[in-house]
Amino acid sequence: MQLLYNNKVVIFDRTDFGASNLSLPAGKCRYNDEALSVDCTAHSVLYDILSNTYRPLMVQTDVWCSSGAVNSNGTLIQTGGYHAGDHKIRIFSPCYDEDVTCDWIELPQNLTVQRWYSSDHLLPDGRVIIVGGRRAFSYEFFPKSFNNNNDVFDLPFLKETTDPKEENNLYPFLYVLPDGNLYMFANQRSIILDYVNNKVVKEFPIIPGEKRSYPATGSSVMLPLCLNSPTNLTVEVMICGGAWGGAYLEAMEGVFWPASRTCGRMRITDPEPKWVMEDMPLGRVMPDMLLLPTGDVIILNGARNGTAGWENAVDPVLNPVLYKTNEPDPKKRFAVLNPSTIPRMYHSSATLLPDGRILVGGSNPHVRYNFTGVKYPTELSLEAFLPPYLATQYAHLSPIIVGVEGQILSYGQQFWITFNLGFPGEELMVSMIAPSFTTHSFGMNQRLLFLDIVEIERVSVFGYKVTVFAPPSKNIAPPGYYMVFVVHQGVPSHSFWVRMQ
């Protein structure tokens, strides 16, 4: 899934499982599929949040287990996949209701190396870095550099973190740091990569306990960056869930080991960083972790036993868990929330929406589309999870944004937001979130910034104006589109979109 700035969500799945349940528009078919000689069904949709409708899209090659990032102008850059799609670069540019012709475009230019189970991240210079993948111990960029059209850079770290027979280093967790370098986590290890000079500049302690990368799949977020002191930022990474080494091989034999219950937090800006471990209320493999506008973390989807992969997990975890990031008492940080009734296992996904809900979809944990006769059938539904701040008893605390000074922002500039609020309290924050490309339990490019507030003014009986600083640099907020929320006493407004450039 990828949320776009026009409030639509691109969703897609593999193409080589045969016909889907959704037809392409008349006359559109694919003729290069591995499963069907002619396939006139859709394997991608564009979901419209506001109207709760969707329309079919057409991908040309197999996008199974691929990756992506939205570039600075709001176009989704989507890379790699399986078989005929493993070297491909595709783009999807947002369009509006009056234009129903926008669709996937596959570029004639290819990736240098096959990228299957790789991770992407938007960089401060506007390029996308594509890291790793199965048997791909390297990284490359899109667009390519001007002086070399086939530049690919070896990364021994990825080879060192591969486990025999089960890997456990795929879909590495990536975060751009305030100094412009790239934090990278795979398996149980993490480094800082200077991708400009192709040099590892720091290595961190090993996270205790289980493996954390696909197929022993945990999830991760970089916790919010507070910009009230942007020259002295604390950067903290959090990783939750996963599975023991060997769990994948056991699951292939029908033995499902318990998933990890632990989360680790590490302040990577400390002089001597170390992991601080906590226990979740529920063990979980294949969780999705999303940053909420409040700065808290929602953990949802996944299973209690097994690993990622076809039929490799059992006992779905139906209850989301809220993690209160700044709660000082560790015993009070986790809260178990109301459950779904739908298992969300392998190939499920989730993303934050502009109104603060979480869109959840998918679950396809067996070979071929199958809706009957299996324990966890293919799941085609979408559902919306409402975090606690959307409960009706808090509605009076939610700000209603009525105006914004500008929607295209320069770095470090001041801008104001006007909003209405009937029952004002003292606690007010402005958060800015880059929407994630979510697949295989990792929200790539997900990023939350708390903006530095200059002043808050009352301008009418129920009207207020908050003046804030935009992020100070491209390293802190890579150029592109962000959702901005006003958060009052833990309850966010509906967001508005801004573009950093």
Automatic annotation (TrEMBL):
Known Gene3D superfamilies for this protein? Galactose oxidase/kelch, beta-propeller, Immunoglobulins
UniProt KW keywords: Signal
Q: Where is the Galactose oxidase-like Early set domain?
A: 399-500
> Taking every annotated instance into account, which residue ranges of this chain make up the domain Glyoxal oxidase N-terminal?
1-389
The answer to whether keyword Signal applies is: yes
InterPro entries recorded:
Gal_Oxase/kelch_b-propeller, Gal_Oxidase_central_sf, Glyoxal_oxidase_N, GO-like_E_set, Ig-like_fold, Ig_E-set
**Signal as UniProt keyword:** yes
List the protein's name: Galactose oxidase
- Its source organism is Anisodus tanguticus
